[in-house]
Every structure is written in C-alpha cells, then in structure tokens.
Predict the 3D structure of the following.
Amino acid sequence: MLASLTREGTLIAAFESAHESFHRYHEATVRFAASAASDARALEQLREIFNAYLDQFHAHHTAEEVHLFPTLRRVAPELAPAVDQLLVQHGRLAKQLSVVSQDIGRLEWATAGDAIPALVQDLGMLHDIGVEHLEFEESVTVPVISTWTEWPFCESDG
C-alpha cells in the first residue's frame, strides 16, 4: 500500500490532506467554543469535533512516527536532527491537545461561560504550535518524499 502511495505524489497529497483537515478541525473547535457557553448543541458539537480531531491526530502522528520518520532517517540521514525536532513538536502538540481536552472536559453547559476564555486561549496556543509544526514538517519531508517513486523499503521492512 505505501509503495503505491508514492506514485504521482499521492503520498504527499495524503499528508497535505491530513494537514488541511487539522486546520479545519481547529477552525470548527474555535467556532463551537465561542458558542458553547450559551448553546448546549454547540458544546456537544465541540466535543464531537475535538474527539475526531484527536483521533486523526493520533492516527496521523503514529503513521509518521512508525513509518515515515524511520524511513527518512534511513534514506536521508542528514535529516536526523530535523526528524528529532519533528518528534519534539509532536510531543508539544500532544501536550497541548491534552490541555484543550481537559478544558473541554471541564465544560458544563451551565457554567461553560466561565471556562470559555481559557479554552479559547488554549486553542490559540494549539493553533500556533500546529502551524509551526506543519510548516516545518512540510519543508523537511516534501522535498524528500517527492523524489520517491515507491516506498524505500529495506530488507528489515518486509
């Protein structure tokens, strides 16, 4: 499956699509957070969207950490420091997602207004960390991946 994804740039397109969806999830969480204080449905939608955001985050970053990053280290060893930085950024993102998750968990519709400012601030921080990460990740990975016509397996990958 991975081998066919690199043909015609589809692997890059898949990663870019995931990255774009992170932006959409973020925009939706901010939009629903602003309404959650006075709208029970908005609070429910905020939780649903954030849970989907978390699911995609974990699946995407696991795929990168298990498949992409080790391959980058193997085929482009000079990128090892950049891969290390990407892993640090993944940790920062996971930590901030945890903070936002805790903020959302504290929201009770009757008192949501009191918790909204912290949630919005933490979502802003998540956005900033995410944008920094996505820009760096794309600048590091796309030039290498775009040269692959198939996944660069080694004997131990089989």
